[in-house]
Design goal:
- This protein is α+β, with helices and mostly antiparallel strands.
- It has one domain: Cytidine Deaminase, domain 2.
- The protein is 23% helix and 21% strand.
- The chain has a 6-stranded mixed β-sheet.
- Helix 2 packs parallel to helix 3.
- It is globular.
- The chain starts with 22 loop residues before the first strand and ends in a 14-residue tail after the last strand.
- Bound molecules: tetrahydrodeoxyuridine.
- The site of tetrahydrodeoxyuridine has 13 residues, from helix 2.
Length: 169
């Protein structure tokens, strides 16, 4: 008699480890292209309407038509009615420039103390899923720049932020 009957289920089990590639930079080490979107995301934290959480997030998207579309979290007294910065930016980009494709996106956030977060803030699950849609539309990787007070995480793609993502198509 085996002591653990569940081990039968593991006989053909294989294990997979999924790694996420993250490059870590100092804010001042960013290339001018990356620094431009990072600075826009930082600036747009000032446009957050976050009287309930007092957590202010900014997002900036560079499009392949040369435009930059930014967003900031917008809260509501009926809490779930609010929107994150990343979705405010990507839905705005989709609505304003439906033919354009995303090139890179930057995110930055200020905590309740008003200071830019360190380490950098990363998008929530719903925002990752929403951004992934635009990466798939672009047909190529969309770089993600997570901007902290001193540290910046650069990921090569949205899909690297959301391993095992749901995709229907
Ligand atoms: N928030 C964002 O804007 N982006 C995220 O990815 C996570 C959270 C906002 C939502 C809410 O207004 C505040 O941050 C606190 O959760």
């Amino acid at each position: 008699m085996r002591s653990n009957p569940l081990s039968d289920c593991d006989i053909n089990m294989t294990e997979k480890t999924i790694n996420i590639p993250v490059k870590v930079y100092g804010l001042d080490e960013l290339s001018p292209e990356r620094r431009r979107v990072a600075d826009l995301a930082l600036r747009y934290t000032e446009n957050a309407y976050a009287p309930y959480s007092r957590f202010s997030v900014g997002a900036a998207i560079e499009l392949d038509n040369g435009e930059f579309v930014c967003g900031a979290n917008q809260e509501n007294v009926a809490y779930p009615s609010g929107t994150c910065a990343e979705r405010s930016a990507c839905f705005s980009a989709g609505a304003r420039f439906p033919q354009a494709r995303f090139v890179r996106i930057a995110v930055a956030a200020r905590g309740t103390d008003g200071a830019v977060t360190e380490p950098p803030t990363a998008p929530c699950g719903a925002c990752r899923q929403s951004l992934l849609e635009y990466e798939r539309l672009a047909g190529h990787d969309v770089e993600v720049i997570l901007t902290g007070r001193e540290t910046v995480y650069v990921l090569p793609s949205v899909r690297s932020l959301l391993p095992l993502a749901f995709t229907e198509f």
